[in-house]
Amino acid sequence: MESTLIRAAIVGSTGYGGVELIRLLQSHPKVTVTSVISSSAAGTPIAEGFPHLTEIRTDLLDGIDMDLIRSKADVVFLATPHGISMKLAPQFLEAGLKVIDLSGDFRLKSGDVYKQWYKHEPADQALVDRAVYGLAEVYGEQVATSDFISNPGCFTTSALLGLYPAVKAGWINPDSIIIDAKSGVSGAGRGLNLSAHYSEINENFKAYKINKHQHTPEIEQVLSEAAGRPVITTFTTHLVPMTRGIMCTMYATLTEKRATADFVELYRQFYEGRKFVRVRPDGTWPATKEVFGTNYCDIGFSIDERTGRITFISVIDNLVKGAAGQAIQNLNLLMNWDETLGLQFTPVYP
Ligand SMILES: NC(=O)C1=CN([C@@H]2O[C@H](COP(=O)(O)OP(=O)(O)OC[C@H]3O[C@@H](n4cnc5c(N)ncnc54)[C@H](OP(=O)(O)O)[C@@H]3O)[C@@H](O)[C@H]2O)C=CC1
Ligand SMILES: CC(=O)N[C@@H](CCC(=O)OP(=O)(O)O)C(=O)O
């Protein structure tokens, strides 16, 4: 029934995260998108810029008009860059709307750490404190009692879902962790930049932001909570010539001798009942195509008995589990709905 639908507005609808929210929410049984918002193309039909939405969405893009959005929506997704979300979120919260922010603005609890990694002033500390970090499989209970969610970064989601249970259980030495992360180009957003040019990325594979990536402190913040003490990690990101997908290949030293099958069991227990994390059996490892277009995070392991080290492989679709999908999962959790509503897709394969 129409009256039972929650009304959603999407700010940043013309970006990759925003367009993915539109795609996914189109088939959500309890949500209707009532406003697609653009700061640069208000008044034009969304299908004009995105012909794949022809005859799917006939809306004109709204501008950022607080009164209009307040009157049209119950929840707002901010698919906006960092620095912008911190200006918009307080206005929507004051108006009584639920806010789910996809940017990095509210993820780091320390303003000093934010400033060090993002190179500009942090958001208001009271708002940062109010935001719940929406790593859904770990902090789902806190999400369920909040009205303001800070959605995790894409690399962070993949890395943390792959590492958190082992760190929490004390099965790996957190100081030994090395995270080797690879992303498709859509992770950089729709804006034009040189490294995303076809001729720069095609048949190319390159590392970037080494020891400077803004997801480093985000990963460390959560691993420190899991370990019960400060943790620092080595985290290196790479750009891969594909559109979607993240793979984190991660290495750590075992705290005592264990078999790969023990990790499979530990992870299956930790994620029991959480449909979006799929733990691979001993001897198989996931590939990005196996989660393409879905909210799944697939995880596999291998222990090298010669070195006493374990390798973790964790894959996600950066635009779904790494952004829009997890944002909708968080909406489901905060509305106390089944977390899988509107997100039950089979991966696109091949
Ligand atoms: N791409 C990914 O895989 C992931 C992205 N994220 C985060 O999600 C957010 C959106 O990312 P993504 O969609 O990729 O980025 P894009 O660059 O593709 O889109 C961002 C959108 O924000 C809007 N915008 C830009 N400046 C302003 C402004 N001053 N006021 C209001 N809106 C503005 C623009 O839309 P318009 O001009 O129409 O207003 C733009 O389309 C970012 O914070 C990003 O870091 C998080 C996880 C993964
Ligand atoms: C391929 C690529 O460029 N990816 C982006 C991460 C996208 C993301 O999650 O960004 P936020 O943390 O800013 O929300 C990057 O490495 O900065």
UniProtKB/TrEMBL annotation:
User: PANTHER family per the record?
Assistant: N-ACETYL-GAMMA-GLUTAMYL-PHOSPHATE REDUCTASE, CHLOROPLASTIC-RELATED, N-ACETYL-GAMMA-GLUTAMYL-PHOSPHATE REDUCTASE, CHLOROPLASTIC-RELATED-RELATED
Q: What is its EC number?
A: 1.2.1.38
Q: Which reaction does it catalyse?
A: N-acetyl-L-glutamate 5-semialdehyde + phosphate + NADP(+) = N-acetyl-L-glutamyl 5-phosphate + NADPH + H(+)
Q: What is its main location?
A: cytoplasm
**A Pfam family annotated for this UniProt entry:** Semialdhyde_dh
Span of domain Semialdehyde dehydrogenase NAD-binding: 7-146
Give the UniProt subcellular location, in the record's own words: Cytoplasm
Which residues does the Swiss-Prot or TrEMBL record annotate as the active site?
C154
Organism whose genome encodes this protein: Cohnella cholangitidis
Alphabetically, the GO molecular function entries are: N-acetyl-gamma-glutamyl-phosphate reductase activity; NAD binding; NADP+ binding
Q: What is the lineage of its organism?
A: Bacteria, Bacillati, Bacillota, Bacilli, Bacillales
Q: What does this protein do?
A: Catalyzes the NADPH-dependent reduction of N-acetyl-5-glutamyl phosphate to yield N-acetyl-L-glutamate 5-semialdehyde.
State the family named in the UniProt similarity comment for this chain: Belongs to the NAGSA dehydrogenase family. Type 1 subfamily.
Q: Name one GO cellular component term.
A: cytoplasm
UniProt KW keywords: Amino-acid biosynthesis, Arginine biosynthesis, Cytoplasm, NADP, Oxidoreductase
| Protein name according to UniProt | N-acetyl-gamma-glutamyl-phosphate reductase
Q: Which SUPFAM superfamilies match?
A: Glyceraldehyde-3-phosphate dehydrogenase-like, C-terminal domain, NAD(P)-binding Rossmann-fold domains
GO biological process: one example: L-arginine biosynthetic process
Broadest EC class assigned to this enzyme = oxidoreductase
Pathway info: Amino-acid biosynthesis; L-arginine biosynthesis; N(2)-acetyl-L-ornithine from L-glutamate: step 3/4
